[in-house]
Design goal:
Elements: E1 2-6, E2 23-27, H1 36-40, E3 45-48, H2 55-58, E4 66-69, H3 79-85, E5 88-90, H4 99-112, H5 115-123, E6 147-151, H6 155-166, E7 170-173, H7 189-195, E8 198-201, H8 215-220, E9 226-229, H9 238-246, E10 251-254, E11 276-278, H10 287-305
Length: 314
């Protein structure tokens, strides 16, 4: 009989049904690093959203047969080692194709139209003291006719493109950074940086994409351009981002940081500037999206048990 252990069940708010085959089930709201091996010692199937399963941990779990990742990103699992060991790793696909793009445009609109700055003006009494019917204390920029650069054209990138076109934006799809040639329909990475009013990141985090955007890339962006990141914090060099924001060169809307949860005192947490909005990794968490995730999670486990693993990454 398979034993299934869910290491961080509190990371999903959904109705999680049990797999339709004989099994034992155990779940923990959260699991600290030092608890992982003990909790998985008898498990054949591990479910993890963000709990790290590195080589050192996996080597101590000889009975493990499958890792079901309750997310799209699998950077918390050593997929290479799992491949060596024959441990199947499956992830979740395309569950957030509506909720993440909506968050992208929430950040984009709030920054382009200076929502927070105007809200603070109203709270501070500036409108009440105005000599006319409106305030011109901050610039308001439309999305219509603005150029959006999309870096990463998977399911979410495509959904962002669709919404952008509905707003009347011009869309550029970024070619891989450093690519020698440019594919039809794509635009050179550096040109996207230099010419976009808004750049939105939709990439997994891996060795090739870590710090994809650093000081050199931020300097290439147009003054006043926006960088939106709802993907992974490690895609952007945070020290370089802080400098660019404090210098007023660009604006940014981020839903992710490199270390989550962040430690108290992280400089981006304390950055109170009108050109920066930070939300706590919630772009993916629309209730409908989380239920879709939960349903697919169990379907992945059932498919593996039936001998036909799906959404396999290792």
């Amino acid at each position: 009989m398979e034993k299934i252990v869910f290491l961080d069940s509190a990371s999903i708010i959904a109705d999680i049904r049990r797999p339709a085959f004989a099994h034992q089930w155990a779940e923990y709201p959260a699991t600290a690093a030092g608890q992982t091996v003990e909790r998985l010692k008898d498990a054949t199937i591990a479910i993890t959203n963000k709990v790290k399963l590195d080589r050192e941990t996996l080597e101590q779990l000889p009975g493990l047969k499958m890792v079901a990742v309750a997310a799209t990103g699998t950077d918390n699992v050593d997929s290479g080692y799992c491949r060596e060991r024959g441990i199947v790793v499956s992830n979740i696909r395309n569950y957030s194709v509506h909720t993440v793009p909506e968050h992208v445009f929430m950040l984009m609109l709030a920054l382009r139209r200076n929502l927070l700055a105007f809200h603070n003006d109203v709270l501070g009494g500036a409108w009440q003291k105005s000599t006319q019917f409106c305030l011109f204390t901050h610039p308001v920029r439309d999305l219509h006719e603005a150029t959006l650069g999309i870096v990463g054209h998977g399911a979410i990138g495509k959904a962002v493109q669709q919404i952008a076109l509905a707003f009347g934006m011009k869309v550029q799809l970024a070619e891989h950074k450093g690519a020698a040639t440019t594919r039809p329909g794509y635009t050179a990475f550096d040109w996207v940086l230099r010419t976009s009013d808004v750049i939105s990141l939709h990439l997994p985090l891996n060795a090739q994409t870590r710090n994809l955007i650093g000081a050199a890339e931020l300097e290439k962006m147009q003054p006043g351009a926006l960088l939106i990141n709802t993907a992974r914090g490690g895609l952007v060099d945070e020290a370089a981002l802080l400098n660019a924001l404090q210098g007023g060169h660009i604006g940014a809307g981020f839903d992710v940081l490199e270390k989550e949860p962040p430690t108290a005192g992280h400089p981006l947490l304390e950055l109170n500037l009108p050109n920066f909005i930070l939300t706590p990794h919630i772009a993916w968490s629309g209730r409908a999206a989380m239920q879709t995730l939960a349903d697919q999670l169990i379907a992945n486990i059932e498919a593996w048990a039936a001998g036909t693993p799906q959404n396999r990454v290792a």
